[in-house]
Design a protein that fits this description.
Length: 456
Amino acid sequence: MKFKEKCLLSVLLIALMIRAVIPVAAFAATGSLSLSFHDADTIDYLNLAQSILTSSTFSNTEGNPEVFRTPGYPALLGLGLLVGHVEIATVIIQVVLSTLTVLLVFQMAFTVTGCREAALISALLYSFEPLSFTYASLLMSETLFTALMALFMYCFLRFLKSRSAGDLLFAAVALTASAYVRPIGYFLIWILALGLFIWVTAKVRPALYGLAIIALYLVISMPAIGAWNLRNYVQTGFGGFSTSGIWNLYSIYVPVWENIAQGKIIGSRRLPEKEWPIPPHEAPANYDVMKASIADCIMKHPWVVFSYGTKTAFRFFLYPGAERTIGLFGYRAPPLTIKDRTGKSFLEKRMIDLRDSPSFFLTDLMFGLFTATAMVLAAVGLVGARLYKETAGVFLLGIMLYFTITSVGPLNVYRFRHPVMPIVCTLAGTGLYLSIQRLVIRRRWKDTGETMSHSG
């Protein structure tokens, strides 16, 4: 085995060790699988997984067809239910998936830069990425979704270089599968189709081959997502892929926008004051009402929507999210909406964290420093390697922009950054490599200058 291959294997072993030790230590600390590995949405996923196994349907606890969530992650949980130890089996699978994502980050970076050393640094950075090793231990859809997104991005980056139909086929399959895990991937399928058409028209010759490429992508992706749309329409009358976007906008975003427009103070994590009467699984006619209300609010308050979204974008990129990590071990972060935090500056809030929960403060500080450093290095890599001028760099930036736009707002919690971090670490590894190279060159210049001075 060559030295560089040994280096990659070492990085993967480090990543695996981190992701394997955390759930073991968490269970040792709490003695409870559910306390350590369950989150707020876990019970819904488990109920849907049980529905698939027991009745071969995808139904909620009321027995109605589920249109809010998609079946990808419940299907994974079903494997654990079949084994009889859903938490243990699922965490093991997710630890493996998260480690494979580290490998995909290496492949992404190597495909973009052609530099194995930079790719190794990118993989090493992602090995220590907090969201990655935290959510590998939680029965939530993030790890599976991010692994599929990383596979999609790697295959599509290969396609941009090779223009191989095989690479595009695997990219389309991975992207479509990701939409079945988290519906947020659904709109990306359509956006990529448009982007692919523009790129093929401008870059691919002969034109007939370009048309064949577009046709292949459409043949793979559109029937797959259309099948779920058809299922929803036949069983419920709702013809969309998922009601989650409409429900979240109507029940959470619209009340927050309205409250801000009326001059009311909205805490960063406070639930809206208005309670909406329509549950997320009601008749399709209700969703027409929801859509109309959403559109009306956006038209009335476009500046509120834009300014609040811009404000929460900062939280999307830099909020550390340590509370969920310490939650694995049975600890809890200080409440985020208590009265003595309202109106306080960022530094004052951190001092309150230090007073109320030192373990949370220190973990949050370390995670925050890692995330901020990775973002800065990503910018260095993007500019230093001039990736913003390359199709591959524009593609990665486009994916980041998509998840940023679709995540900002009242529901913009740190976990939505999870699928963006493989891109950030890909670029950050390049930035760190370039920075090291420049330091080495400057050191050599300095040594050479000193030698010449002494010789003179």
